[in-house]
Amino acid sequence: MSVPDRRPCFITTPIYYVNDKPHIGHAYTSLAADVLARWRRMQGREVFFLTGTDEHGQKVEKAAKDAGQDPQAFTDRVSQHFRDLAVTMGFSIDGFIRTTEPRHKHACAVLWEKLAANGEIYLGDYEGWYAVRDEAFYGPDELTESDGVKYAPSGAPVEWVKEPSYFFRLSAWGDRLLKFYEENPDFIAPASRRNEVISFVKAGLGDLSISRTSFRWGVKVPGDESHVMYVWLDALTNYITAAGYAADEAKFAKWWPAEIHFVGKDILRFHAIYWPAFLMAAGLEPPKRVFAHGWWTNEGQKISKSLGNVIDPVALVAEFGLDPTRYFLLREVPFGQDGDFSRAALVNRNNGELANALGNLANRTLSLIQRNCGGALPASSPRAPGDAALGALVDALPATVGAHLDRQEYHLALEAVMAAAREANGYITVEAPWALKKTDPARMEAVLRHLHDALRVFATVLQPFMPATMGRLLDQLGVPEDARGLDALATPLPGGLALPPPAPLFARIEATA
Ligand code: MSP
């Protein structure tokens, strides 16, 4: 028997800019992290699931100014929306970090001093293009021009910046980064993104400006308070602050390196190039993995504030329910690829897969047990030849789902459950347990028990995706609260267990716009 893996694991989302209220992109990155965190806990791992807000820099300073508020009061207010989002979306976070917290400023200062002591930082002058919206520097060859305005590849306008600045010797890290990527093939996922990063590094890295002097809203550079740290150095440091860096050695040793940083493709460069370089330069280990997911469009259109088609996750949940929304976001699009949000697609997934394939299966099975078995769970019985195909799929499911989640293949994990649910629906039709009551009650009981066993596995492995609804299904299946982990699947429920009357799990949604 293999030894269970009990290592602690640290899972992070990006920390979100507090310039605006949360949208679908924020909900999506954190949802993927939440499902993995919940799965790891079910495996018996100790998890630290972190999210938070990125509160410094020019972009936030400007948003505060536009709102007529002092930046701290502004960030206090907007940061709360992200805490609220975690509640609305059912995110099982263990920590929430804000970059304006003293513990974080301390960690930033210690990291800076370490980099300086290691000879990785020098003072110079920065002159070049900067996009406030991306909080990123760009080379002239990366820009396009229209109507006299220059734009970054992200579409953000750039401005010319010229000021004294500290630099990080990133140019010296290219070869070591390439070696690191080679030795750690799973560090960047998906593979297509890994290749992009490698090409970018191979093309040559310049030194990186890591401080600014033209505004004040940031972490002060230790020993030279006329500078504030570049917001990305500040922001990336959040991961180690929260893990205990420069504050609690035992805690840091426990959680660092992170198992995975979840990010969107737009911020991969910062996480896969700058971040491991900063860490290695400070003598720290890089995270084990960075996964860059794709972007959503809305009914085929790019999402943007100016088009007014931003998708509000709170409104989605209010309209479709939390679990159908969570299910749809991870089911519809292979994680890592861009995808289109459409109401019709959400309605189809909800009605076809949740309400029909899963919900009806549960309802039919449990209603038959109520009606034909007096609400008592039939005893386990050996598999007959007709039970083998479903049985094999069900037995394999926890390992299949686990293997997909290890690779962040959420859609494949869900497809595997749906394939087994389709098999179970075929099985109930072929076996027709409702017709067996008079002809072969023993076989009827056996069939219902096999279906119940299958439903228990589906509900167990789907808990990370749809925690509340699968909790209700497990209640209806009579599974005690302390028997809902993966290990508990090895112990069959006792025959004769009294089951509560079933109630529908998912509502069908009318397909009107
Ligand atoms: N503050 C930085 C991250 C610092 S991490 C050390 C930041 N913040 S953000 O608020 O802009 O975060 C955006 C997150 O939402 C990113 O992961 C981004 O990819 C994601 N999305 C923004 N728009 C999106 C879509 N339309 N679709 C999917 N995700 C998108 O970046």
Descriptive overview:
This protein has 513 residues and is of the alpha/beta class. The strands form 5 sheets. The protein has a 6-stranded parallel beta sheet with strand order 3-2-1-14-15-9, with helices on both faces. Strands 5-4-8-10 form a 4-stranded antiparallel beta sheet. A 3-stranded antiparallel beta sheet has the order 11-13-12. Helix 5 runs antiparallel to helix 6, helix 12 packs across helix 13 and helix 15 runs antiparallel to helix 17. The chain is elongated, with a radius of gyration of 26 Å. Bound molecules: 5'-O-[(L-methionyl)-sulphamoyl]adenosine.
The counted number of beta strands is: 18
Dominant shape: elongated
Rg, alpha carbons: 26 Å
Biggest pleated-sheet summary: 6 strands, parallel
Proportion of helical residues: 40-55%
How much is the average pLDDT?
96
At a glance:
The chain has 18 helices and 18 strands. It has helices spanning 24-42, 58-66, 71-88, 102-117, 174-183, 191-202, 231-236, 238-243, 249-255, 268-281, 313-320, 322-331, 343-373, 388-406, 410-431, 433-439, 441-462, 467-476; strands at residues 9-17, 47-54, 95-98, 121-131, 136-138, 144-146, 149-151, 159-168, 188-189, 208-209, 211-212, 220-221, 224-229, 260-264, 290-293, 296-298, 301-302, 339-341.
Descriptive tags:
single chain, 513 residues, alpha/beta, six-stranded parallel sheet, four-stranded antiparallel sheet, binds 5'-O-[(L-methionyl)-sulphamoyl]adenosine
Helices and strands in order:
Layout: E1 9-17, H1 24-42, E2 47-54, H2 58-66, H3 71-88, E3 95-98, H4 102-117, E4 121-131, E5 136-138, E6 144-146, E7 149-151, E8 159-168, H5 174-183, E9 188-189, H6 191-202, E10 208-209, E11 211-212, E12 220-221, E13 224-229, H7 231-236, H8 238-243, H9 249-255, E14 260-264, H10 268-281, E15 290-293, E16 296-298, E17 301-302, H11 313-320, H12 322-331, E18 339-341, H13 343-373, H14 388-406, H15 410-431, H16 433-439, H17 441-462, H18 467-476
Parallel strand pairs: 1-2, 1-14, 2-3, 9-15, 14-15, 16-18
Antiparallel strand pairs: 4-5, 4-8, 6-7, 8-10, 11-13, 12-13, 16-17
The chain binds 5'-O-[(L-methionyl)-sulphamoyl]adenosine.
